[in-house]
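Suppose a colleague, Dr. K., hands you the sequence of a protein chain of 139 amino acids and asks what its three-dimensional shape might be. Before reaching for any lab equipment, you can write down a predicted structure in token form. Begin with the sequence itself:
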Amino acid sequence: MGAVLHLTAVTDAGGPAAVRQALRVVIADDHETYRKGLARAIRRFGTLDLVGEAADGLEALAIVREASPDVALLDVRMPGLDGLEIARRLRELGGVHVVLLTGSATQTLRAAAEAAGAHALLSKDLARDDICRRLLVLR
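The predicted structure, expressed as tokens, is then:
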């Protein structure tokens, strides 16, 4: 059985439509209600393709390694491995943009996220559609 490829038509000023592959996303958050809501928002976004969900850090790392997403959207605090540790491990593998989610973004946490190789640290207070839009800049 072949993989399904999701494509999005993109136009530039005056030029013909180009075809761009959707950004493949894995999300991980131990809070089920938040994770499911974020998953729904990603599925609604035509330029994002949800390729996996995880409830803890160990599961997230396994799914990322298997699914090879473009972006891993990870909660900072999760059982097993936290988002910072996953970011460090994925930095060594390369090829995956890590975006961390937190309920409280302190300067210390921002510095730790940057040192771990995360591309962004976003507040969970952002609207889910805003989180989706911020993922698109990682193209």
